[in-house]
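anyone else get weird line breaks when pasting these?? whatever heres mine. first is seq + tokens for prot A
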Amino acid sequence: PVSAGMKGSAIENFSCVIYNIFLMNCTWQAGRDAPADTQYFLYWQNSRDEEEMECQLYIKDENCRNVGCIFQNVSIGMEKAYFLVNGSSKDSLIQFYDEYIDLYKIEKLMPPSNITVNCDEIKSDCIIQWQRPQISHSSKDMCFKYEINIKYK
């Protein structure tokens, strides 16, 4: 359905990223035609079984307008998460913005840990080993691709 409200008042450039295994940061820009007093509010639902929650920690711009949110203790489920950003203004109705997102697709992976390098000068070779990064959505070993950049000094 088309959102009621003033055309151009809905947020733009909505994006979220999950980092450090359980933190999620969502950001947006105010609608280009939104009145100056417009304030935005973010709600999200991790799955149909969970309750919709409002952001508890908003990121504000220089005009104290909500332009983002930081979520803690985020867990990635099997379903797409639902995000809704609505707005209010004393001057006019504000259009809402909503989107379904697969959370595993927006996770920024941690670097590998416990990296060790053992070189054999006689054979002129090195063995490099590491542990795969921790990820929030599974404890199973997944298919990872790694890029190794070796610089000789």
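and prot B, same format (seq, then tokens)
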Amino acid sequence: GMDEAPAPASPAGLSAYVAVSQLLGLTLLVTTGAWLGRYRGGVAWHSSLQFNVHPLCMVLGMVFLQGDALLVYRVFRHEAKRSTKALHALLHGLALVIALVGIVAVFESHRAKGIPDMYSLHSWCGMATFVLYLLQWLLGCGFFLFPGASFSLRSQYKPHHIFFGISLFILSIAACLLGITEMLLFKISDSYSHFVPEGILANTLGVLLVAFGLVVGYVLTRDDWKRPPLAEELALSMDFKTLTEGESPGDGSQ
């Protein structure tokens, strides 16, 4: 167990990249807050400022928390798989709830101001991303979190889950970039071309979003940083391979 041997350390490069990702993530939130607070009047729910809840929630939920949910298998490399998996699902679930608040904010704000919904490319990409993200979360819980799913089904679904996980993270950032552009063209179309401070700040937010995505993407795709299976997981998967029906003999916690 954990008592007699110290846990192996994470690769040095991994720790540095994860630290940079967290610094970028916090800078994202501060920059979003600065833009909304300094140039867009701040954030409030029951007022004309309700719209501003939207960008704040989307950056917090669909970018920062989603990115961190993807990183938990790299960060918690030597913890039990079951608890790491639960944290992964929990962070994604939290991101979903916060994103839902952000979506409600924009629909209510549009209704209050008589603005039509769902006509822009940003809204199409954003809504598609959210719906697919919810679906991915439900499927992930169904296949990996509840003990009912068979081992063979899990191993068949896993590559799809990983591909769509990274794809949805990329799509989320893309939707943010479209949203930033749309907001600048709505609010400061006359002065944007003169390199006004608001335009520069919002552009900087876009660059930070891309940087966060690149750093998280690098950590996720580097093979030698992937989570090593624990001894008991290796033993279990050997048992699985010898079983012709491919079903889990245990409680399905792998």
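btw re prot B: The domain at 14-228 is CATH 1.20.120.1770 (Four Helix Bundle (Hemerythrin (Met), subunit A)). The longest helix spans residues 151-187.
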